[in-house]
């Protein structure tokens, strides 16, 4: 038996167009019942209920129904709501604290302070608004899945009017319209299919099913779940193969997509950790300011100050107790984190999500397109029934090779494998397309993804499919049918006759074979051959591959019609070539990303609409599911109460065949257990769960518009690795916020302690710092240093630590202890130099040296705050170039504040001598030594306590 690949002319067979002559509509279609199980009805009953027919509606009737049912749209998808975005920014609790401080400043007659605080509120609101507005604009650019028009059948008018195919805007599709569905179309509404010719539809955006669904016109049981309703075309799904007709029964909010949109609207958005932490910090700052103000008032009255004078000063000290720069720096830190994430393919829509990502304890991820490539790939070929050959390479790019036991296989010298690949590529309606883009070469499949995998596999083996089709033009075919379970094509092989290529379900193809191909010959197929091939098919299926059998035969031209008829009757006429196994493979980098999550203490859960077997295989391959772990199916959750589900989610890692409601319940269960949840997804079915999670993450390429609108973050590359990168950046952001918080609070604490200690300990002394000096320190010295701390690079072990507890506060007990120690030390050093200078040089010089000492304390304290636990010498003094510049600028500005005449007048300072500057630097730099000692001693003390 030879391999007949000669030259010839390629021929495309014409499409078979059915002439439908169904009855005209019997009613107006009023009172359409959405509770009807349309999938369980016969087509004629569906037409009757809808007041339509296979001939469609008239334009006049369609207009009337459009007025009755409304446009085929989901509300809420419109322009960016700018006022709402601004209001959301103003709701930050720290804004309320600052607003109170502004009022106090006004009452105290401190107009400059009030203006500065008001400017800070405006700046913070603007920064947050600009970030989210830019993200929304970028999101609108990502929306590339919008279908603008739909092809319908419409009657031209009258009871016996003609029938026309017409295109209308999808928003104008109404119940009763008849859709014309072809490969490449996006389904505009929910519709009952009444005619299907090899019709396959990709419903992954709705059901999570990675493989297109073969559709039928036959009724299915009323109890069938969404994923099993084979005669329904859902709004938003994509036709991948064949053609069909369907009558619309649901539009707008009455579609499955609309139901999910309603569930989204009914779901309350989870409060983010940064919101909880900011609210907690705001309360503490308010109490601290009130306490210090009252304490200053009492001490001043005891010292004999006039009530009005000390009251105004107490109000000023209350403002001083609030680190007004903190809100600005928090916003800048979040914005910097968002910018870093964009560079790592994560677009942040809500600024607060940046920090929340760093708090994530659980990532719930979809499978298709997130952990996998969403590109069916030929993974294994079994030649004959036993010889296994694997392939390398992932996706539609024809890059890779064939291997057997780790060694490369030369297709040109393997006649059996070559013949199998060619037969699979010929018995195929898909094609491979190459596109040049700005990012490089992009490969796409036109047609069914499973068939596309066979085309790509043949190309990897050196078979140019386009040349193959030219050399062996198709002259006839038996299209695939879900009842027939096979497809056959007939190809002109020149002098060799006609080559028949068949592919289909393994058991079906084996039952049609009488021979086993071996090289260029064939022998009778044995029971052992059938058993071996069947076992291989079962093994491949258990590894989540979609398995097809491939066979062929050479016949004379005159025998085509007879041979075709016998194939329809399943007569054993073919020579078996082998099996092909396709899979939507894991992304190459997914395994490493899962491992990084485990090292970071983050649990990863897979929630997919795919089958249990597929979910199990993928989850084990990438490390989500460990030995002994099992997959939970969605139906197991249906009768499960919340308490039982809460216990299950503690240990379960993979959920298969889950519905939108299941995903929503799983996320809610995790949140009840105190987890901080990031939920990823691309389909509309994921949107309610995305909203329920603290961080909703949508796919930018394959994600639906509804999902992108719901999410806080959109992945530009649909890659799970980008989520892990974003979590890493989120952890860096949280640490930087804590560093800045510690720095600013320690500054304000030192100022308050210094003022109050001076009032108590130095009788008759003037105020040690004036309000304008405090303002200078807070806005000029601290204002430079805190922003540079916000740009601190990540520490190497940021992903080696477990997730911080959801209840972790920005200011915890350890930080309070550290701040108090630093504050007391800074106050002591400042008071020491102030009192010494007061005795020797007088009031102006003493106040100046106190002012400069406090400012320089902040400069050296910034170095302390670069790490909570590591020595500055281990972190590296020069690793944050922004801080180095800020330190130099702060020193220069403070020097100028004591030497430039107009600044001396504004601040009330005088020039200091060289010896005085040396004293200031020696005292202020001691704060660095103090904290270095703490960092060195604390770990040893903690280890000793644990041993004890």
Structure in words:
The chain is built from 32 helices and 29 strands. It is an alpha+beta fold and 948 residues long. The chain folds into 4 domains: 38-75 and 149-266, Calcium-transporting ATPase, cytoplasmic transduction domain A (Distorted Sandwich); 270-343 and 727-947, Calcium-transporting ATPase, transmembrane domain, CATH 1.20.1110; 357-372 and 588-724, HAD superfamily/HAD-like (Rossmann fold), CATH 3.40.50.1000; 381-578, Calcium-transporting ATPase, cytoplasmic domain N, CATH 3.40.1110. The longest helix has 42 residues, at 720-761. Helix 4 (93-107) runs antiparallel to helix 9 (307-320). Strands 11, 12, 13, 14, 17, 18, 19, 20, 21, 22 and 23 form an 11-stranded mixed sheet that branches. Strands 1, 2, 3, 4, 5, 6, 7 and 8 form an 8-stranded mixed sheet that branches. Residues 1-34 and 138-147 have low confidence and may be disordered.
Give a topology summary.
Layout lengths: L42 H8 L6 E2 H11 L12 H9 L2 H15 L3 H32 L6 E7 L7 E7 L8 E5 L7 E13 L1 H4 L5 E2 L17 E2 L4 E13 L5 H11 L6 H31 L3 H14 L4 H19 L2 E3 L4 H7 L2 E4 L11 E7 L3 E5 L10 E3 L2 E2 L6 H12 L4 E7 L2 E7 L2 H12 L4 H7 L2 E5 L7 E7 L5 E7 L1 H6 L1 E6 L2 E4 L2 H16 L3 E10 L4 H9 L5 E10 L6 H10 L3 E5 L4 H11 L8 E3 L1 H4 L3 H7 L5 E3 L3 H13 L4 E5 L5 H6 L2 E5 L5 H6 L2 E3 L4 H42 L9 H19 L23 H28 L2 H22 L7 H4 L5 H17 L3 H7 L6 H34 L1
Helix pairs in contact: 3-5, 4-5, 4-8, 4-9, 5-10, 8-9, 8-25, 10-25, 10-26, 11-25, 12-13, 21-22, 25-26, 25-27, 25-28, 26-28, 26-30, 27-28, 27-32, 28-30, 28-32
